[in-house]
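A quick aside before the break. I want you to see a complete sequence-to-structure record at least once, exactly as it would be stored in a machine-readable document. Don't worry about memorizing anything.
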Amino acid sequence: MLSRYLRGFLLLALTLVALAAPVGAGGQDSERRVLAVHLDNDINPVTQEYVENAVDRAESEEFAAVVLVLDTPGGLASSMRGIVKRFLASRVPVIVYVAPPGSSADSAGAVIAMSADIAAMAPQTNIGSSTPISLGGEDISKDLRRKIVNDAAAYVGELAREHDRNVVAARKMVTEAANYGARDAEAIGLVELIAPTLPALLSQVDGMKTVPKGLVLETAGAQIENVEMSFWQKARDFLVDPNLIALMLSIGLIGIVVELWNPGLIFPGTVGAISLILGLYGLQVLPVSLAGLLLMILAAAFFVAEAFVPTHGALTVAGGVMFVLGALMLFDPAGDAYQVSFPVAIGIAGTLALLVGIALSRVVRVARRPVAVGVEELVGHSGIVRRAGMVQINGELWRARTIDGVPLVPGEHVRVEEVEDDLRLVVGSMASIEPKGRS
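That is the input. The structure line, written in tokens, reads:
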């Protein structure tokens, strides 16, 4: 009897262990998390900070991997290199996934992909076109072009070599502006694999060992935690637009000039100050040319000086020219991806010159008008006698007397002939013209 109870107890224990084993394994899988960082934007200081913070979080919270879901036309070389350095130093496996279908990793995006532990693409995507170009969009010539292209080619080639990828194809993205579709990129060894979706990607890379870090990926069945840019980051990114920065600076300039010409209006000065601060924030984020900045400051000084120096518009024209030149030169260090459009610069400068011209024409018109203030302006006006010694003119009561000393009769129409020193009006009778308004 005892042995039968013992066998039953052992059978129950084995059953519980068998049931608990799958649950434990499933619980272990459920603890695996992957941080999916979505970036559909330019590479700039704001997006660099966004990506770097995501990698920091993945390390601190011990995610199994961090996936950069990338779709970008490129951006600033300085921000690109910052992201590359962070990826290379990451203790968590970094995967760059060019997705969704129709996306691309161009220019700086292609270099970032080469720095990842795993480079993957969705079908119908492309990667490449990393040849440096000049600020105006054309090829850089001669020695300068050779220097810049060789530097960029060596940089991306070394990243590809260290991650056991096709070095020749990587260098051609710079030297020949080569661009590869997903199938071609996988076939030539530029990327590790193609996956239609992020879960499929995580299943395919599970168990892979990264080069050169030697990290083993454990991502099959992992929970995906998606990350998007916050509202504040999107707002900051929106402000990092050269055309918008130039517009904010011009609005700030207009507001301040109007406030200087008409002290006490408040509204123009307030709007101008806010716009100027927003424009200066953009200048703080993007690398700027000192020469361009000085030209724009000189343009502002010319516009303000026009209000105080009678140059008949010469300073306004000079200010417009300085503004255009300064705007076009302002973001030279930022590269071709961040430049003020020439039509935008011309439009803003023309608008500024037009507004200043309109304001000046009104000032001149007002200066040429006869004096319209003071008691002398009352001479020649007509009024009505309201009571003895008081005449109403333009809704105001004035002390008055007649030229010949005859008492004023209430209701009588009179005309102002003179204003005495004590502000008493000397009036004459208009009885001869009063009947004209009666039937």
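Two observations worth writing down. The chain has three domains: 28-232, 241-368, 375-437. The chain has a mean pLDDT of 83. We'll return to this after the break.
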